[in-house]
Design brief:
Layout: E1 2-3, E2 8-13, E3 16-26, E4 29-37, H1 46-60, E5 64-67, H2 70-77
Parallel strand pairs: 4-5
Antiparallel strand pairs: 1-2, 2-3, 3-4
């Protein structure tokens, strides 16, 4: 879920927040300083699911992404299909 008012993408499992990423928006550039998964849910791929949803939203909205977070940068680097979304 993209909560634009809070500048946060959130991944829920039922009603529980399992991962989130705060961001800032400057024009069409989404800057992601970090991606965090709740400690009880780490190692289960939730951060990747969150990133997948973020990438889809960013692409759909004609935006690019500036990954400050090492996880976000690694996620994008490992997926060539996302390279066109990385802000220069």
């Amino acid at each position: 879920v993209d909560d634009a008012a809070s500048s946060r993408f959130t991944l829920f499992l039922g009603r529980e927040v399992v991962a989130f990423a705060d961001y800032s928006l400057d024009g069409t550039v989404v800057t992601v300083p970090y991606v965090e998964t709740d400690a009880a849910h780490r190692g289960r791929g939730f951060a990747a699911v969150l990133m997948g949803g973020m990438v889809e939203s960013i692409r759909t909205n004609g935006r690019t992404i500036r990954p400050i977070c090492s996880y976000a940068a690694s996620y994008l680097r490992e997926r060539p299909e996302t390279h066109d979304l990385v802000a220069l």
